[in-house]
Amino acid sequence: MPGPDATEACAEALADARHVAVLTGAGVSAESGVPTFRDALEGLWAKHDPMQLATPEAFVRDPQTAWDWYRWRRSLVAEVAPNPGHDALVALTAHVDKLTLVTQNVDGLHQRAGSRDVIEFHGNLFSDKCAHCDTREPAHTGDAGDPLPTCGQCGRVMTPGVVLFGEMIPPAAMQASEIAATTCDLFLVVGTSAQVYPAAGLAGTARACGAGIIEINPEATPLSAGADHVLRGPSGEVLPALLAALAA
Ligand code: OAD
How far is the CA of 137 from the centre of ligand 1 (A)? Predict the structure, then answer.
């Protein structure tokens, strides 16, 4: 865990900020029991090849296998709860003038914790979309092996409402995130390996526009060297400690 001086310095930066933007990644949900993507031993991608499962081509080539994997993720996320890191980000809104929360996570845990107006950069696991006619529907229920969900409009097999590799970021989410990155004066990067673009580029945009950068992550990332403050530790502990320092 970071020392009290580092936490105090970040709390002061938060207190001085007029607009705080936060970008979260899979690490924020790790303490809820959702495996991250790239952590070597537990990461989802260590057990599965993403190119086989999280691409539009996978849903054409072998939709049953791709759907079974997403249905497994849905059932896993449905059984877990937000953790103190999610809760601290909800509470943080009361302590700063303006907070914009951008998440790469598709698990909906920020919203379940109580965060409002969350920008879902990579979509949401609990919706379905049709790649053919662009229809969106609430997620069809189904377990591994069940028949595949089909579009109410055109009858073709749907995909989960997440951004698959090679797909565009939803334009509204992209635009809102870029506005946040260019207008904030403090940018928090929490629990992301910062390897997937364009999300990983938002911190650079914020820095180029003059914002301070705080990274919260137990491990170093490509963003660490350019950060003004780095709090090394799990977000479920670091964020509540930061909130406590801010509220003191
Ligand atoms: P990654 O799995 O790439 O990175 C997870 C990060 O969380 C790593 O930097 C870990 O060090 C950190 N971490 C682990 N435990 C933590 C904890 N308790 N508290 C804080 N941080 C912790 O996940 P993302 O960066 O979110 O995209 O991955 C980005 C995108 O890659 C995902 O949105 C997903 C994936 O492909 C799509 O599906 C489109």
Answer: 27
Under DSSP, is residue 53 helix (H, G, I), strand (E, B) or coil?
helix
Per-residue confidence (pLDDT) for residue 32, from 0 to 100: 98
Same domain, 93 and 109: yes
Q: Domain range spanning residue 233?
A: 4-33+82-122+169-247
Q: What is the set of active-site residues?
A: 122
Stretch (H or E) spanning 161: strand 159-162
CA distance 31 to 58: 30
Model pTM?
0.96
Q: Residue 215 C-alpha to ligand 1 middle, in angstroms?
A: 13
CA of 217 to the centre of ligand 1 (A): 10
Residues of the chain with pLDDT under 70: 40-42, 44-45, 50-51
- Strand 159-162 relative to strand 229-231, pairing: unpaired
pLDDT tens track for 41-75: 667 667 777 667 889 999 999 999 899 889 988 99
Based on the domain organization, do 127 and 63 belong to the same domain?
yes
Nearest ligand 1 atom to alpha carbon 37: 2
Q: What residues line ligand 1, using a CB cutoff of 6 Å?
A: 25-27, 30-31, 36-39, 43, 54, 104, 122, 162-163, 191-193, 195-196, 217-219, 221, 234-236
Q: Give the CB-side neighbour count of residue 45, counting CA atoms within 13 A.
A: 9
